[in-house]
Design a protein that fits this description.
272 residues; single chain; mainly alpha; globular; 2 domains
């Protein structure tokens, strides 16, 4: 929605992800039921995105990218420095799981089902929005913003809504992340997370909901699958070295897709 349909270059996606994660974790630890803490995570991320959109979206696309990149790093620094709230670099342990730990394998399966249902629901909502008059309007803004403005529409208002919607979904994802991992620290919210999101989108196909889903599945399958390759590579003796090779392979794939398949796996094959 943000880049594929609207043309927004958001390099601060991890910032909204972090806001959602810490919001849900802190509220759950304070005794709020998990469903309400997850809803608060999405709402908080959207609320934070709204003023950023009102200010930054009046800038050129490249300046907006710089602003959002700085925002993501600012969130991480705030999380690190505000020890009274986030416990600083030591992080927040003991975050409640979606289902009690004593449920064992059943709890893990239930968590997987909840996550799959939420992902499917989010994809369907975005697909419906993309095919609605709202979706056609943001596509027009992406293609020719001046023409949309000449018709009496306010592109900044539509961009702000898209930014808030995407940030709400990022916040919800962050909330789920907190309850699955059960531990949060600032080191988990670096710019690399944003890079992975962009990588998944480029792999699958920009501007297509199915492309985002497929790209995310492929990227995570690669990142998690390569953890088992270390035993087959005798030159790599540590997990740190394997992580470096993994990151290099992801970067190489990004370059190759940009050069030879910029539309992604489910893009328009009639175009180069």
């Amino acid at each position: 929605m943000q880049y594929g349909l609207t043309g927004l270059i958001n390099f601060g996606h991890v910032g909204f992800f972090a806001i959602g994660a810490f919001t849900s974790a802190l509220l759950a630890l304070a005794g709020l039921p998990t469903p309400l803490s997850l809803a608060a995570a999405a709402a908080t991320s959207a609320i934070v995105a709204w003023p950023i959109g009102l200010v930054a979206l009046r800038l050129r696309e490249d300046y907006f990218a710089v602003v959002t990149l700085g925002f993501g790093e600012t969130v991480r620094l705030i999380v690190t420095s505000e020890r009274w709230l986030t416990n600083g670099v030591q992080g927040i342990p003991g975050i409640p799981r979606l289902f009690p730990a004593d449920h064992g394998a059943a709890g893990a399966v239930a968590t997987l089902l909840v996550l799959c249902i939420c992902c499917l629901g989010g994809a369907l909502v975005l697909q419906r929005l993309a095919r609605s008059p709202f979706g056609r309007m943001i596509e027009a803004i992406r293609d020719n913003e001046d023409a949309v403005r000449a018709l009496g529409k306010n592109p900044a208002a539509f961009k702000t809504r898209v930014l808030a919607l995407g940030s709400a979904l990022a916040g919800l994802a962050g909330g789920f992340y907190a309850h699955v991992i059960t531990y949060l620290s600032p080191d988990q919210f670096t710019a690399l997370v944003t890079f992975y999101v962009w990588m998944a989108m480029i792999l699958g196909g920009v501007g297509r909901v199915s492309g985002a889903v497929l790209g995310a599945l492929l990227l995570m399958a690669f990142l998690e699958g390569t953890r088992f390759v270390r035993d087959a590579l005798p030159g790599l003796v540590s997990e740190v070295e394997m992580a470096s090779v993994r990151l290099g392979a992801v970067g190489l794939a990004l370059i190759l897709f940009t050069l030879f398949r910029p539309q992604g796996l489910v893009g328009d094959y009639s175009r180069r």
